[in-house]
Design brief:
alpha/beta
Length: 162
Amino acid sequence: MPKAALIMGSKSDWPSLKGCVEVLRTFDIEVEVHVASAHRTPEKVAAFADHARENGFEVLIAAAGKAAHLAGVIAGHTTLPVIGIPIKSSFMDGLDSLLSTVQMPAGIPVATVAVGGGDNAAYLAAQILSVKYPELQEKLDAHRVKMAQAIEADDAKIAEEL
């Protein structure tokens, strides 16, 4: 079974990340969720990332706001794919979090989704894992068809209103 981890810098990030977990579970991806701070519990973050592969994780998702260094610190400790979710904070509407997550030095990449983009982080994780798990590719294809059908239904509804 594919396995991912979602690490958030603070418990206050959880409300904006529940959708990420729901999407991962929709695709039957096992997910563990943890709170660990790059600044307040740096040893915990480093140990988690250092042992992530041997603990069966195949992709890591890290969410943080303000000085959003969590994804970068994790990426510095593993060669597993890391997806960063910048969290909207009270300062700059999350732009600071976005820049802290996306601006990584060469050789230490963090795939970064939109501010608050937990759902897209889960879809990206599913796409990454689909390289190894063909059943995920089938589920992703079916999801895309479902989305297209929903747009077609919306288009028909609008046409009826005219």
